[in-house]
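Entry for the shared binder. Reason: the reviewer on the internal report wants the predicted structure included alongside the sequence.
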Amino acid sequence: LGRILGKLVAVGEFSIDEIARAIKGGGVEPGSLLETAIGLDILGTVLDVTRRENG
């Protein structure tokens, strides 16, 4: 998921802020992705992919 979102950020379809808000509110219950640290893994992957794609 992080790789897909990272590519979408890299091509300008979404901003990092939009992805962060979606992760914050996402999951079975709002905030559950952050509580389980899955959201942090996803956001980290988004940032890595964006950095690689944009240089």
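Summary line for the report: The mean pLDDT is 93.
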